Amino acid sequence: MNVDNYNLVMLLSNLLVDTNAATTTVQNALDLIAKTFAFKQAYVYETNRYGFLELKEFISPWDNVEKKLSLHLFEEKIHHESSIIYTVSKLDDENQDELLGIFKTSKLFFVPHIIDKRIGELVLFVEGDEPVEDRQILGLCGSMLLKYIMPRMYDNQLINSRKALESIIDNTGIDIYVNDFYTHEILYVNQSMAKPYGGQDKFENRKCWEVLFPSKSGQCEFCPQKNLIDENGDPTKVYTWDYQRELDGSWFRVFSAAFRWIDGRLAHVVSSADITDNKKNEALIEYLANYDSLTGLPNRRMLVTECDRRINQVNTAITGYLLFFDIDGFKMINDTYGHDIGDEFLISLGDFFKSIDVLKNAIYRNGGDEFVAIIDGNISEDELCVMIGKIHEKFDKPWKLKTVEAKCNVSVGIACYPTDGKTAEELLLKADQAMYKVKKAGGGSYLFGRDL
Questions:
Q1: Which CDD domains did the record assign (predicted)?
Q2: Could you read off the pLDDT of 437-450 as tens digits, one per residue?
Q3: Is residue 289 part of a domain?
Q4: What are phi and psi of 51, to 5 degrees?
């Protein structure tokens, strides 16, 4: 069908009236222009997020259509001149142009849409048997078609930008979700956050606690929202807190902040990083700092801390006892049988102390062959003395170890709270002095600090 150029513009205007760039419409527009100018081929390319021109629509007799083109093939040409329509001809260069070789022609035209000196999309035509006489009309038609498909390109750019942003968010190792600040409806959740709960669709049209804490019927009592806005309801600063997930016991460092969502409403963004390994390391460091690596008993540091804590929780009308145990003859065991046997003995001794009900959660290794017990005042002095007597009975017999039997005894010093001291260090000093006096007297007995 042949139409004059002005009728072509009118027909094209009537065709390109939709606000949405429909592929069928673009195809019809290409067909109309191609038939008017007797073109063999016509193409629409759009720059994708990888920096290549990607084929969108085309009119071509060839089966093997070039679906991707490098931008540099066109950008080298548009940098040399400023025009609506550009021509690539074999006559322009004695050497065969790469573009001409791709489309198997001696002349082609293209109309680009330039964004920040880069091609966003372009319409490309391959000259047929009849020469193009009115390049201005052809350029106008190409520009009209580009304006029609521009919204599609911007939509695709937004989609690609969102995909890229989501890909970044999903690969940062941080879990993120956003909910409405007041209704708590979930507005967004990234993949890593959603995965343990069954995927992103499990969060759609639900409130945060319905997914994260299904046993709750309302806002979580530990939700930090009150810390995220000021008295005027405006966002303040990021609030940080640690949280252990009920689902699997994992620990997370959580960052909460208020901000304005895309529709203007106040939203609450929660991001979290898995710190389970950190917590385990912290627990290990805490354990090593407070527990004896050989016997597994709490050490002197823990002893002083716990003793002072107990003292601070009681009044002076309540009594308590601190018992200081020192092994008589432990050096002989080490010298005779070696340190491995000595260590085995200390482990057995710790287990023995823990087997006594009164001492089970009250015994500490002070260092070397010294052990200390903190006993609250719910035991009488007579009962205390009976317990110490049973401990001495154990020492009256040889200790059966893996390869030997070791014989030794124990000296015990006893300090009373508050008469012998009102701090852990004062009580330890008094009990140590009483124990030392027992040891000088031959060992194997006990002495109260008040009897010094």
A1: GGDEF
A2: 999 999 999 999 99
A3: no
A4: 85, 20
